[in-house]
Amino acid sequence: MRTMVAWVPDWPALVRQAEHAEANRGGSTADAEALAVLDKGVVLACTPAARAQGVRRGMRRRDAQSRCPDLVVCDHRPEVDARTFEQVLTTLEELSPGVAPLRPGLCALSVPERYYGGEAEAAAVMAEQLVGLGVWDVRFGIADGVFVAELAARQAPAQDCLIVAPGGNADFLRELPVEVLEVPTPADATTPGLDLVTVLRRLGIRRVGEFAALPAADVVARFGAHGALLHRWAQGEEVRPISRRTPPPELVVTVAFEPALERSEAVVFSARQSVESFVRGLDRAGLVCSTLRIEVDAEVAGEPRVSSRVWRHPRWFGSGDVLDRLRWQLSADPPGGPVVAVRCVPVEVEPLGDHAESLFGGGPDDQVERSVARVQALVGPEGVRTVGVQGGRAPADRRLSAPWGERPVVQRPVDRPWPGSVPAPAPATVFTEPAPAQVVGAEGLPVSVSGRGGLSGRPARFRAAADLAWQPVAAWAGPWPVDEHWWDEAAARRVARFQVVGVDGSAWLMVVENGRWWTEARYD
């Protein structure tokens, strides 16, 4: 995902400097020019005037004051920094809704390139707006993810943007010093008390590319989960999702019923006008809602009861979509009493420009969506499903299914290595439950696989299911051994998969586990 990071260097120092300038209005502000903000006796941020005299982030107070005798020292007040940075976030949200604050002075957002004509153009517009706000030194970085975008922003000139080309994260990182990977080491890391970057330098590793070239297994064994995370960052992978700001409270719509309504049809009908107003409000804010939480308040035996469910949409919710979800929720989880209120809470909102259709259109055909919606209204939301592919070793593990209209949640990314998985092409038919099968060698003895992947004999004859006849093996491939969850005795599983072709031309994916054979899928 293309991500933009906006960085205002030394934001805490700029805030304190503005406070000093306000306090000295009408007089000299020279005393406030060389200023540093300290946290626990260490310099957290400083102004350009202080930096020009040798003050640096991470210095102790005594060292900083020895470099700059007239240094103005201020305590760190994170709540003030966050409150003042809110104005920057609000300004950026007016241009690209869905800003994710990382810390005061740093935030991430989606790149509204389609609206402004390009990534560089979008950054230029945002820089102009922030300069008008009085933020002179703002820098932008754009890349495939937050981590690299932040590094790009730190290398960009003031009021400018450094763009890392799509797919270019690894190339951008390769020659950077390993110090860019400096993050606090967790207390439960494999090397507690030691900074990972310090250890890398002791090992002679100076560049991010050198660290990225190390085998992942060796990094995990030496540095644990913390090191594995930094190793993936070094390879250009983005593993830190953007946590967008909670939508403003006015986007939440509550429909109260007085008197309370007993029938679901009456609830949906009475909520229609408010739901339409809810969608129009999002549109006016330049937003669309892709994830929605519907809360239903009811009275059951005099006690309040709240039914809540999160709904997802592959594109965004229109008013009809919201009403359909409300109807389905009332049907699947009856309130059990009169409904007194319904709330629509946008959980995830995205810029409308990110979903703008191109000249030739985009997204699923509207007529198809309407037709499927009518079918769902008859059979329920679970009756119509969409399928996809996710990562996994077994064919059944790779299946991904979700009700039509909801975004499938990928639990296992496809782009991860899956050792032991069967190579392409994938089987056309995957059985819900594996069928008992038999495979024997030329002597008629069952074929087995040792712990090292060795065969007791070559497959000669097989029966793919109990209701199918025995037949000779025309060709076979494998085994592909898999040793899963070996560290968990309850979940441990050791299997080996084979592709087997019969003389009748049928092809099967078979698996042997604990000496027993099963058929998992069929190739058409």
From TrEMBL:
A Pfam match: IMS
Domain UmuC: 18-115
Keywords: DNA damage
Domain of life the protein comes from: Bacteria
Gene Ontology biological process terms, A to Z: DNA repair
Gene3D superfamilies xref list: 3.40.1170.60
PANTHER family: BLR3025 PROTEIN (PTHR35369:SF2), BLR3025 PROTEIN-RELATED (PTHR35369)
Name of this chain's protein: DNA polymerase Y family protein
Organism: Aeromicrobium senzhongii
Lineage of the species this protein comes from: Bacteria, Bacillati, Actinomycetota, Actinomycetes, Propionibacteriales
